[in-house]
């Protein structure tokens, strides 16, 4: 079956879960064409991401003139469809500035619809309920294939009205959430008769990339991985480390990632005199991220807003316990047998969890890591989850 994936910016260092899902579907016999509005190739270091970039058709590289002429040709051939698409785009745009942006989405959708027909695409699946889902909706109005989309959070759930999330869920063949929490948020905005078409399909890990882990070296090393953005809560983590290190001076933290808050994080490290406690690595290729997980004794995730983070799944698959905030879908995966849950935004409680981790005997931590590995392998095998998504796609064809 020929299907296509649509993402706004793809590939990105933080979107390896999409690549894994695509590959799992391809192993199950799907022929998949990749569409993205734009590339992030300047920020790609992982060889797999670079190869994926070469396989992806980037719509905006067609140029404004090409997209406009394509939309004009669509309007001449299908005037009623283009009027309907413009009406939907205008309504979903809301404010004047966003309405103009949504009219650009009509041109992008006309291109996607034309390419899908040329390629023989039978179904289009978008990731994220933002503009990629908007374009997927509009391309169907313009004669493209049936479509579906996956929501992750937190961005979609921060602005469900502005994103017309309920309207998109009603228009799609089905909508995926990556956790039960995410599905509950979709239920808040979608009509009740749409609820049966709101499905949970977890993001997955590739089990073969996680062979039976070596026991962690004795120590008190934590690793945190993610973009240095406001939702990830890394400044709170530095504050919590400063508190915990007073009682546990052997605590060490490796921060893997980068982003707009790097300057603030570096300033906090200096303010709390934590240079000997904290290592900043910047972004790392996937293999090196896995190496950092293997070298750590536990993962710490201080996020204020999440969907269901891949990094938690990867840490658990690597046999490491997790310290995480009790938000969104995280409590569905992280239970007391595999880690410690804390309230978001509470540095003192996070520090207490870090101190508890440091005092926990190595054999107890090892048992927690094994329980974590067992739990994530049962719930988040990408092959099993992709098979569920594949069944939904095939069923959508009627």
UniProtKB/TrEMBL annotation:
Organism: Gemmobacter aquaticus
InterPro entries: Glyco_trans_1 (IPR001296)
Tagged with keyword Transferase: yes
Protein name: Colanic acid biosynthesis glycosyltransferase WcaL
Top-level taxon: Bacteria
Family that this chain belongs to: Belongs to the glycosyltransferase group 1 family. Glycosyltransferase 4 subfamily.
Record keywords: Glycosyltransferase, Transferase
Chain ranges of the Glycosyl transferase family domain: 212-375
